[in-house]
Fold this sequence. Notes:
Blueprint: H1 2-8, E1 15-18, H2 21-27, E2 34-37, E3 49-55, H3 64-72, E4 75-84, H4 92-104
Parallel strand pairs: 1-2, 3-4
Amino acid sequence: MTRLLAERWPQARVMGVDASPEMLAKAKAIPGIAWQQADLAAWHAESPADLLYSNAAFHWLGDHQVLFPHLLRQVASGGFLAIQMPRQHLNPTHQILFELTKQSS
C-alpha cells in the first residue's frame, strides 16, 4: 500500500514505519520511500503528516484510547488519520475455529 500511496502522490514525502528489521529489509526494495524502524505505539512524526495511514497494524497494539489521540497529534491541521483495523475475532469463520479449538481441548 505504501508503494501505491507514493505512486498516487509522487511529489509527497512518503515514509513507511515498521518495528521489524526483516520487514524493512524487504520494503527497502521499493524506491522513493523513506523507511523507519520504530515502535508504532511510541512513534513521533518528524513534522505533522498530511495523511497517516495504516492497514491492519494497529489491531496488534493495545491501549487504543491513548494511542489514537497520540496519532492524531502527529497529523497536520486539515490532515487525515486513516486506520483499517480488522475485527477478525467477530468473523463467523473465526468463531467456528474458536469453537473447534474449545472442543479439541
